[in-house]
Design goal:
InterPro entries: Enolase-ppase_E1, HAD-like_sf, HAD-SF_hydro_IA, HAD_sf. Belongs to the HAD-like hydrolase superfamily. MasA/MtnC family. It holds the Pfam family Hydrolase. The protein is an alpha/beta fold and 231 residues long. It is built from 8 helices and 6 strands; from the N terminus they run E-H-H-H-H-H-E-H-E-H-E-H-E-E. Helix 6 links the parallel strand 2 (120-124) and strand 3 (148-152). Bound molecules: ligand L4RZE5RM and magnesium ion.
């Protein structure tokens, strides 16, 4: 069956885990107190801070919310509220050119080639949709946002749940088996496969020095770069 759309993860797939862990997360961690102090009353910010407060037992001071969020960053929690707030904070970093986002050298050329071939491209990441747009809009390879036909984050559901991929399939409007999902995380690929999508495990050696081969791939086709993916 021909593949007509590609759905890609970001961290560990198009971009290195170390960029997210060593650049984006510390930036958000440092900027959080100032961000909450200056923008914490904006309704679009407040609603996420209140969500965090509720999960922490109810009303609490902003300084406590900041500590909770910083703890979640340290744990790499993929919480929708944290991801939404991180996206707003990173906007400042990208706009003031404090950093550009990392793209593996094979990622942008392959995405462009697939687009030229007529495939539709989509993103599904734990990072919020605004954060995804920023990342692809300010990448080492330039602004790649025009390549994509749609964006999905955890508002559609968790990445390890088959129901999330079913919702994405419905939104894309193609049969599930015509969509190829790329990710570095086996549990995400398992969930996508359960929903009927084709899958490829992206096994970047910079991110995963011990190759995941044989049984470790859980029978997902494996590629160490986008060049090896044939569609
Ligand atoms: C898109 S913003 C940076 C990435 C991020 O916050 C994150 O949690 C990445 O998770 P992914 O689902 O892309 O592995
Ligand atoms: Mg990933």
């Amino acid at each position: 069956m021909p593949i007509r759309a590609i759905l890609t993860d970001i961290e560990g797939t198009t971009s290195s885990i170390s960029f997210v862990k060593d650049v984006l997360f510390p930036y958000a961690r440092r900027a959080l107190p100032g961000f909450v102090a200056t923008r914490g009353r904006e309704p679009g910010v407040r609603k996420w801070l209140d969500t965090v407060a509720l999960e922490n037992g109810g009303a609490c001071q902003d300084s406590v919310i900041v500590e909770v969020l910083q703890g979640w960053i340290d744990e790499d929690r993929k919480h929708t509220a944290l991801k939404a707030l991180q996206g707003m904070i990173w906007a400042d970093g990208y706009k003031s050119a404090d950093f550009t986002s990392h793209m593996y050298p094979d990622a942008a050329p392959a995405l462009r080639q697939w687009k030229d071939q007529g495939l539709r491209l989509y993103v599904y990441s734990s990072g919020s949709v605004p954060a995804q747009r920023l990342l692809f809009g300010h990448s080492d390879a330039g602004d790649l946002t025009e390549l994509f036909s749609g964006w999905f984050d955890t508002e559609v559901g968790g990445k390890r749940e088959a129901a999330s991929y079913e919702r994405i399939v419905e939104s894309i409007g193609l049969p599930a088996h015509e969509i190829l999902f790329l990710s570095d995380v086996i549990e995400e690929l398992d969930a996508a496969r359960e929903a009927g999508l084709e899958t490829v495990l992206i096994d970047r050696l910079d991110d995963y020095p011990t190759p995941r081969e044989g049984a470790a791939t859980n029978d997902h086709p494996r590629a160490t770069s986008f060049d090896q993916i044939e569609v």
